[in-house]
Sequence to fold (132 residues):
Amino acid sequence: MSVTAVVVDDSAAARLMIGYHLREAGCTISGEAASAADALKLVRELKPNIVSLDLMMPIKDDFDSLALVRTIKKEAPEVAIIVVSVIPSERTRLDFIEEGVFAYIVKPFNDYAVGAIRLKLRRAFPELAAVR
Fold:
């Protein structure tokens, strides 16, 4: 069984980079979104195992990032949400962890942070363990 992911970021370059790291971890990218509304639509449609979610997208719809996390967790509690942010605030990280996010990673990524997320993904999704 394939581990699928949806990558949500308003920046195409960031979606490309995050998608690269998720594919390197063994995931299949099943969709990409540039807004919260599109993200929610894809989560409902594709039912991914993982959602990578940028915190700093412009609010173009009714969802800010925390509301989107709450909605996804309510509708699909099994989805592992990886929050991606340029905000290194410990309080913000803790707020999202309390909402049940799988991981919180700060941009720009470093090898240590990416490695830690990859290890955590392998523990949560044993089918990824065979991937380099």
Notes: The domain at 4-89+100-127 is CATH 3.40.50.2300 (Rossmann fold).
